[in-house]
Design goal:
This protein has 143 residues and is an alpha+beta fold. It has three helices and seven strands. Helices cover 22% and strands 41% of the residues.
Amino acid sequence: MPLHNQLLINGYTNSAMKNEEAAVDWMQSLVDYIDMKTIKGPYAAYVDVEGNRGLTCTVMIETSHIALHIWDEPNPSEIQLDLYTCGELNIDKVLKKLEKDLGLFDYHYLVLERSRGFSVVERNRGGYDGLVDTLFESQIDFE
């Protein structure tokens, strides 16, 4: 039975990426680094709308998708990453690459297992003030 893990990361950087080509190159390097396979993309676009300025980069991988969002208006800039895979997930490798390459700091993450509803598999607890514990104390089933 395939795994269905979704890694959600929310954090900050002092060096927001704004270049679409650099984002595409970085996303492909992430896919390669975590031993996944690209099937389409990566694609990136910069949005220059006040209140929502930032970069979005997505890639379809053989086992699902990865999406990166960096909003550069706040200081520090906000980073969010969503990685969904039905394959193996190496959280440490993803976090280390974000820290090293994009300057990710002060982050929080959550891993959901989604094969039957939503179950929290792993999380760092700092900064959530119990919100995650309240929402996901037990498996959530929307059937």
